[in-house]
# Entry
Amino acid sequence: MIDKMRIAGKLAANTLEYIHNHVVPGVNLKTLDQLCEKYILQNNGNPALKGYRGYPFATCISVGHVVCHGVPTDQILKDGDMVSIDITVEVDGWYGDACRTFAVGNLSIKHKQLIEYSEKAMWEGIKRIKPGVHSSEIGRTIQAYTKPLNLRVIEEYCGHGIGNEIHMYPNILNYYNPDVGVILQPGMFITVEPILTIGSGKTILLDDGWTVVSSDGQPCAQFEHTVAVTEFGYEVLTLID
Ligand code: MF3
Ligand code: CO
Ligand code: CO
# Structure
């Protein structure tokens, strides 16, 4: 089982690594989505988001103040944008889920730091994973790390159990609520995927029914890994080759 999760996880990670080189000023989001879909299919996987709850694309691509679930449109990336690409793949019935935020050309220091700290916040959460620890410690750690940096967690969106479905029990919140979650046990698979912003953290769902934006127009960054709880700690499944 973990072998199959390793294969799915690696494909999600390798797809993000592959698309990274295509994230340049002038490219449109639809092209990036289509390239990812082709890459996944060529490597014996399925783009699991396509058709998931009616979602029509292989990836979610969220530019600037799009918080998450951005739809790959004809929008063209320009210098100074930041863009999150979230990919879920399925291989042989098992799922890998990963997201990274990329800088397009040159970013302001503030926005570069948002990306850097968002990745670090995810790792702070992941490092807390160990059998016997309650999963709410992940959110507690992420919140404790980001607060002094004056960044806010988007509270409405969270990580999740994963395995032979994309979204499984339990939710992995990115802030502290000891009433949500479970005691981590070897053999569990979860995602850690905090979304951070320099703004208020309030969100609005757009009329397309998918795209979530920050209500104050402030940019967001997100990193996501799929992680296995192991006998002594954790194994990150969505690492590149
Ligand atoms: N990959 C997303 C996650 O991390 C799920 C997106 S669901 C979609 O959980 F329907 F919006 F694509
Ligand atoms: Co996820
Ligand atoms: Co995802």
The first strand starts at residue 46 and ends at 47.
